[in-house]
Amino acid sequence: MSVLRKIIHVVALLFVAYLMNSFALRSGIMKHPQMNKTIEQRVDSLLALMTLEEKIGQMTLFTSDWEMTGPTLRAEYKEDIRKGRVGAIFNAHTAAYTRELQRIAVEETRLKIPLIFGYDVIHGYKTIFPIPLGEAASWDLQAIEQAARIAAVEASAAGLHWTFAPMVDIARDPRWGRISEGAGEDSYLGSAIAAARVRGFQGNGFDNADAILACAKHYAAYGAAQAGRDYHTVDMSEQVLREVYLPPFKAARDAGAWTFMTAFNEWNGIPATANTRLIKDILKWEWGFPGFVVTDYTSINEMVLHGYAADDKHAAELSVNAGVDMDMQGAVYYHHLADLVKEGKVKVSRIDDAVRRILHLKFLLGLFDDPYRFCDEAREKRLIMAPEHQAAARDMARKSIVLLRNEKQTLPLSRQIKTLAVIGPLADSKQDMLGNWSASGDAKDCVTLLEGVRAKLPGQGRVLYEKGCDIENKSDRSGIAKALAVAKKADAIVVVVGEAGWMSGEAASRADIGLPGLQEELVKALVATQKPVVVVLMNGRPLAIPWVAENAPAILETWFAGTQGGHAIADVLFGDYNPSGKLPVTFPRSAGQIPLFYNAKNTGRPADPNNKYTSKYLDVPNSPQWPFGFGLSYTTFSYSDLQVDKKEFGYNDALTIRVKVTNTGAREGEETAQLYVRDLVGSVTRPVRELKGFQKVQLKPGESKVITFRLSADDLRFYNADLLFRAEPGEFDIWVGGDSNAALGTRVTLKH
Ligand code: BGC
Questions:
Q1: Residue 158 maps to a domain
Q2: Which of 183, 197, 272, 382 has minimal CB crowding within 10 Å?
Q3: pLDDT in tens, 192-206
Q4: Domain boundary residue among 385, 412, 445?
Q5: Whose CA is closest to atom 10 on ligand 1?
Q6: What is the CATH number of the domain that holds 353?
Q7: Do 347 and 465 reside in the same domain of the chain?
Q8: Is there an atom of ligand 1 within 6 Å of 250 CB?
C-alpha cells in the first residue's frame, strides 16, 4: 500500500512539474529575454501562408562552394532558393555576395522570406585572434568577449548573420585535434568562457546589425570521443555528462545563445543528432531553450552508418522527432520530411515548431524589415581589418601566451643583444600562425615571429634566420647543420617548433603528441651549444615533450597566435609584455597517461611510491609535465594569510575566503589566483580538486593585495546517484594559489 502511495505521489509531482513548465513556456516566463510578442504574431501570420514544402525549406541549410572555388553556389541550390526549398546558406560571405543570394530569396520567391547566412567564425573573421584554446589560456573573460565582439563586427559587416561558435566541448584528451577549438578541460572555466563568447558574438542584441547569432556546439560530449579519435563513440554516465560536459552548454544557453548544433558522436548508443534525451528533454524542456537546433554537417545521414537508422528517410524521422530543427547539408529533410508528414510519422505541429523557431530569428535579425541590413559594402570596407581590431588581436595574443619554463632568467631577452638567431620551421610561417578554422583570415596579413623580432631589433644583421628542418619531414637533416652554423654566430637562440596549423582542428587526431619530424633533434642540437635557448611552441593541443621540458632553458607556449601573432610573441620575448597566461588544460609527460586531467578521482589506492599495488605506472610518474592552471611570469608571486570568515557554514550562508597575493619579484605582473575545493566524502565520490573561482590581479614589485572569493553551498552541488543536483553536508578542503597544485589551504564544514 505504502509503495502504491509513493508511486501516486511521484506521478502527481511529475504532473504538477509538467503543468508548471508548460505554463512557463507558454506564458513566456522561460523564453529568451529578446523574445517578443510582435515577432511571434508576425511569425504566426507568415506560417499560416506557408506550404509544407516551404516550411521544410526553412529547415534546410546548404553550403556555398566558396571554400573550394570562390563565391559560387551550385546552380541547383540557387534554384532551390527560388522555390523556397532552402532557408539558410553557409560558407557564403562578403556584403556583395550575400546581397546577390539574398536578392534571389526576397525578389524571386513566392513568400519573399530572407535567407540566413552562417559561417564558422571561430576566432575571428578576417582579423584572426589566437585559437580558442589559446584565448582560454588568458583566463581573461573581458578580453575573450571583446575578441568575439570584434569577430562579430567584422562578420556582420561581411553579410553574415550566424556563426557556428562558440565550440564549448570540454576536452580531456589532447590527442583529439578539436581540443584547439574549445576552452580546455575544465567545466567551470569553460562555462565562464562559453558565456563570454556568446555575449561577444550576440553583442547588445540585433538592433545594431553588428551582432551575429551564436551557436553552441557540438551538443553534446563530442570532446569525449574514445581514444581521442575524431567522430568516435562516447559512452559515459549521465552524471559525468551533466557534471563535466553539459555545464558550458547550459552557460551558453543562459547567456542567450540562440542556436545549438548537434554533435557527430553517439552518446550511450544514440547519436547526438537524434538524441531525444539531449535535445528534447534536457535542452528544450529542462533548459527551456527557445532558439533552433541545427545538425552538424550531414550528421543526420551518418546515423545510417552508426547503425541507428535504416536509411536517410528513417534518419530524418528520428532526428526531427528528437527535436532537431534544421538539417545542415544532409538534404534528408529536403527529400523525406514531406512524405514523413503525409505518412503520419512526423506531426505538422513539430514542423511548425521548428519553423517558428527559425523564422523568429529571421525577424529578430531585422531581415524582414531590411533583408540587406548586413550587406553594406561601405561598412565592410571600413570595419574589416580596422586598426583597432589589430591592436585588440595583438593584445589578446599576448595575454594567451604561457611561460612554461625560464631557467636562469633566460627571458626576457635584452633589446641590447648584438645578434639573435631565429630558427625553426614555424619561425617564418604566415599560414600556420592562423591556426585551424581561420574563416576569411589571410596568411598574407599575418606577422610571423621572425618579422615581430626584426621589428624589435632593427639594424643590419642583428637577426639571423635559418629554418633548420621541416615540421614533418624526417629524412632531410641538412638544415640542422646550417642552423647550428647560424646559432654559433649569435648571442642567444629562439627556436620555433610545434605543429603545422592543420594538425589540429577537425579530423586531426594524433596518437603521438610529441614534436613531429626532426624538430626535437633540432632543439637538442641547439641546446647543446650551451647558449641561451628559448623554445617557442606553436601548437593546437598539449604536447608531450619531456626532453624539451627538462632541458631547454626557456619555453613559451604561444598556440597559434593569429594575425598579429609575431608582434605579440616578440612583445613577450623582449619583456614589453610580462606573460600572464595559465594553462587551460593539463600537459602530460607521455601520451600513455591520457586522459590526464586535474579534477580526477582519488581511487581506493592512490599512488604511493612505496607500495607497488597502488594506482600508477611502472614507467612514467602520475604527475603531468605541467598542471592545469600553470603559468610563470617574469616576476614571482606568493600567497599567504588565507582566511575564511567562518569554519562552519549552512545552506543559506556564503563563505568569504580572503588571501593575500604578493609580487615578490622585481617587475610589475599579473597573476591569476585560483580557488580549488575538495568535497572529502560524498554519496558519490568527488574529484580530488575542482576549480570554483579565479581572479586576475595586477601587482607592482613588492605590492600585496588581499583578494576575496565567496563560496556558497550552491557552488558545492553535484549530481548524486539519483541525478539530483545537491550539495551534501560535510567537510571541504579549500586551496588558493597560482595553479591546480595550490598548497595554501584550509578546511571548512557545510552544516545541515
Ligand atoms: C564541423 C562543425 C562546423 C561545420 C560547418 C563540421 O564539419 O564539425 O564544427 O561548424 O562543419 O562548417
A1: no
A2: 382
A3: 999 999 999 999 999
A4: 385
A5: 164
A6: 3.20.20.300
A7: no
A8: no
Coil, strand, or helix at residue 680?
coil
Substitution candidate for ligand 1 out of 62, 437, 506 with most atoms within 8 A of CB = 506
Distance between Cα 251 and ligand 1 center (Å): 21
Q: Does residue 206 sit within a domain?
A: no
Nearest CA to ligand 1 atom 11: 297
Contacts of 174 (CB under 8 A, 6+ apart): 228, 513, 541, 542, 543, 544, 585, 587, 588, 591, 594
Q: What is the DSSP letter of 584?
A: S
Number of domains in the chain: 4
What count of other Cβ atoms lies within 10 Å of the Cβ of residue 478? Answer: 8
Range of the domain at 108: 34-114+292-297+311-385
Could you tell me if the CB of 120 is within 6 A of ligand 1?
A: yes
Distance separating alpha carbons of residues 560 and 562, to the nearest angstrom: 6
Whether 296 is a known active-site residue: answer yes
Q: 34 alpha carbon to ligand 1 midpoint, in Å? A: 27
Confidence class for position 8, pLDDT limits 50, 70, 90:
low
222 CA to centre of ligand 1 in angstroms: 12
Q: How confident is the model at residue 13 (pLDDT cuts 50, 70, 90)?
A: low
Statement to judge: residues 716 and 644 lie in one domain: yes
Q: Tell whether ligand 1 has an atom less than 6 A from the beta carbon of residue 297.
A: yes
Q: Which atom of ligand 1 is nearest to the CA of 91?
A: 12
The predicted model gives 726-752 an average pLDDT of: 98
Task: Confirm whether pTM is higher than 0.85.
Answer: yes
Are 428 and 572 part of one and the same domain? yes
Convert the pLDDT of each residue in 330-346 to its tens digit: 999 999 999 999 999 99
Residue range 50-94, pLDDT digits in tens = 999 999 999 999 999 877 677 888 889 999 999 999 999 999 999
6: alpha, beta or left, given left = phi > 0 and alpha = psi -120 to 50? alpha
Residue 512 and residue 406 share a domain: yes
Please pick, among 296, 376, 432, 679, the residue that the annotation labels catalytic: 296
Instruction: State whether residue 670 is helix, strand or coil.
Output: strand
Per DSSP, the chain holds a count of helices (H) and strands (E) of 24, 26
Q: What is the DSSP string of 180-200?
A: GGS--S-HHHHHHHHHHHHHH
For residue 187, tell me if it sits in a domain.
no
* Interval between CA 65 and ligand 1 midpoint (Å): 14
Q: How many CA atoms lie within 13 A of 422 on its CB side?
A: 23
| pLDDT score recorded for residue 349 | 98
The CA distance from 280 to 286, in Å, is 8
Q: Give the mean pLDDT of 477-503.
A: 98
Atom of ligand 1 nearest to the CA of 164: 10
Per residue in 550-604, pLDDT (tens digit) is: 999 999 999 999 999 999 999 999 999 999 999 999 999 999 999 999 999 999 9
Q: From the CA of 296, how far away is ligand 1's center (Å)?
A: 6
Q: Largest alpha-carbon pair distance within the chain?
A: 94
Q: Which of 232, 297, 299, 436 to mutate to test the pocket of ligand 1 (most atoms within 8 A of CB)?
A: 297
Residues 429 and 370 in one domain: no
One domain for residues 428 and 512: yes
Atom of ligand 1 nearest to the CA of 261: 10
- Rounded CA separation 494/736 (Å): 34
Q: For residue 230, which of 541, 600, 543, 440 has the smallest C-alpha distance? A: 541
Evaluate whether residue 632 is within a structural domain.
Answer: no
- Is ligand 1 within 6 A of the CB of residue 217? yes
Instruction: Assess whether the C-beta atom of 333 lies below 6 angstroms from ligand 1.
Output: no
pLDDT digits 0-9 by tens, 519-550: 999 999 999 999 999 999 999 999 999 999 99
Same domain, 438 and 581: yes
Taking the centre of ligand 1 as the mean of its atom positions, its distance from the CA of residue 178, in whole angstroms, is 11
Q: Is the CB of 181 under 6 A from ligand 1?
A: no
